[in-house]
Amino acid sequence: MPRDEGGSRALVTPTRLRVPRLAAGLVRRERLLDGQLGSRPVTLVCAPAGSGKTMLVAAWAAEATVREEPIAWLSLVDGDDRPFEFWSSLIEALRTASTPDVAAALDELSPPRDTVEPGFVAAVAAILSQEGGPRWLVLDDAQRLTDPAVLTGLDLLLADPPPGLGVVLVARWDPPVSLHRLRLAGLLHEVRAADLAFTEPEAAELFSAIRVALSGADVARLVARTEGWAAGLRLAAVSLSDTADPTAFVAAFEGDQRAVADYLFAEIVQHLPADLHRFLLDTCIPEQLSVELAAELSGRSDAGALLDRLCRANALVVQSGDMTWYRYHSLLRTYLESTLRRQDVLAPGRQHAAVAHWFEAHEHPAAGLEHALHSGDEELLAGIVRRRGLRLILTGQAAMVRDTLAAAPETLLQDDTVAVVAALACLDTGDPTAADRWLAAAGHAACPDRPRTRGMWASAVIQRALVGGDVSAALEATGILGLPATGDGDVDLMVWAYRGPARMRSGDYTGAVDDLRRALSIARAEHYDPFVLWSLSQLSGMAGSMCDLPDTLAWAEEAITFATRRGWVESPRLAYAYLLAAWTAFLTGDVDGQARYARLGMRALDGVNNVEVEVGVRAMHELALFEAASGPERRRAAGAFHAIWQDPVADQVSPALSGHAGPQEVRMALAVGEFRWATEAATRLEERLPGSSEAATLRAQVMRARGRTTDALRLLAPVLRGRTTTHLATTTVIAHLLAAPLEAAAGNDGRAFESLCAALEWAAPQNCRRPFLDAWAGIEPLLVLHQGRFGLAEAFVTDLLAARPRTTTMTDAHPLSPRELELLGDLPSMLSVKEIADARGVSINTAKTHLGAIYRKLGVGGRNEAVREARRRGLL
Length: 876
Known about the structure:
The chain is mainly alpha-helical. It has 46 helices and eight strands. Helix 6 links the parallel strand 3 and strand 4. Helix 32 runs parallel beside helix 34. It is elongated. The N and C termini lie far apart (98 Å).
């Protein structure tokens, strides 16, 4: 036992020299134990009370003992903070882990009483350098050491530790030794509070080990609530063992729980000076606390120094972000708030209001809005919504605005501007039902004397109609087409961003593009990224509606690139761009691109609240599946496409989308032998776009499929002469490619060539290949016949012929007639041709004629081949 100069002995209780016993149900934390502790000569394990520091080091020590690595463990107490007492206790700990020879040498040392003696420290290091000394030295509760002489002596030992000795310091806050020198020399490994925080799997293992049954969701909530703090989790576990409803307990678990509050008071709060305790109470409301905000709330000009003291003391206060922001642990914050409320029931509300004012004044309106809600001051809340609500929506924080106002008092419904902002937030987050409630409350929002509120209201009504409603009626009711700019960039952006798509529904593409370009300009200037993406995607749609394929793809790719760089690959705002990119790929013959963009569009569809986009993306997905499929899958895709457009909700989409989809629906229906679907598609489009070129062309497709070529040409004549309303340039191309083979078959070679040239005149510069591929069997002979006569379109024709499809898809070229389809359905049976003819009530010669036509159109030589090919194409 070490002696002082007077021969007295230092008293060291045996329990302070033992490795603490491991708690029941201890979780082995491999990520911290394996290769971490002891990886460098000095390890500092530093974290607040209850973080599991000692238990972690004890678990590591137990494993080291199994490896026969002697450990000297000293749990420090306040009485150790003097040179003689510290070194006496330390030597006694070292003796317990040493061989008799080394222990005897240590016992001969006389620790200094009041000073630093470098020679003594050197003598300790020399003895420990001998074989037989401890492998590890653990100093637990090292934050108790404050005496300068003790710290200087410890610094000397750590600066040049004996070879083979590793030192582990366990402390609540950094002991004032020269840690910076150890870091610089590469001698220090640190384990901090963030490292010790339990992960969800570790927490689940902890609860399982102590037989507390919790769902994965409850474990996740508890880890989030406690921030992985070991003491918080264990205190929760103790309480959970006596509760019948674990989920309800977890939802209500806060710092004011009795067990948590008692622990926080005993281990942290009661050790703080009175002024620090008061400071914590005066600043406990905000989750994020800047030095300036703390100074305003507390009235303390030294708020920064106080926060730094709390942070260094590991009093569950940490720096957050840069050096001027701090955060209180959530359990500590709720404990303090509960304490504050007991002292003055109105104090938390006043602090919330002060915080709300500060955050709004310092350009943090989201935080200001949240605190305004909790302040109980309705006028404060309404004022922030009126001033800042729209900007929060434009910056992508609509969900926060929606949730805040959903929790606000019902009296806020009486404020028109607040109601309109709430409706816009609900629409932006895909909640049209809630938006309807707010719009119904905004009874006077359309007042011309309030242009800002009127503009927001008009854009909300239009946006609601775009989600699913009568866009034409909304345009008339709001008068949005005649609204002048308000001069408020945020309001004007909102008006233009939604007026543009509404104009498209009415066919005003030029006005739509102008609105969207202006919206894009403001969104870019203000860095409103969600609305930059919206505007880019909508501009792609405008170009698609005008059949400008290069521009469509350029806008779509710009939107996709913009979103990808921000990690928004599956954003609902990107779904429209994917749709347009897929459609452009389809029209230009890029089958792989179409399939890729169609898949991405479906992945981004969740959360889309726009009928045009949802119908278009789903239809494109089925079209892509149809192109890649065969057999029953092909028929299924065609049926799904037809069902999408049969749904009444599809009546709300733009004429452009209907016009683009119609020819594909007819083509797919005819390809799988469903004349009824094709007829329904043509009838439906006639109802939606009466007297249009699109409706006439679809009816001509159906007539031609039924073999009524004269009727088909009659329907196409006014389309080809430009005497009908045409919504899409591609419609004219399709009409000419329908007419060309029919004219050629009738011996009108000149007209056939004229139609072919007219189709190429528009399609070649756009690289629009799809209409030619769909009509390939009838068009290819004409292209070959007239090759060399197409002028500027010659290169386009050459490429088409070089990449000609190997098989037809039974669409426009030579579709089976209804009678032929009936006979085809009998071919898989065991009936002979005569028996089939008798069953159908036709002569055997008629049956053979139909059978020959089937073989020719399918490109096969016999009955078995016809059945196989028909199944491949989905006709059977």
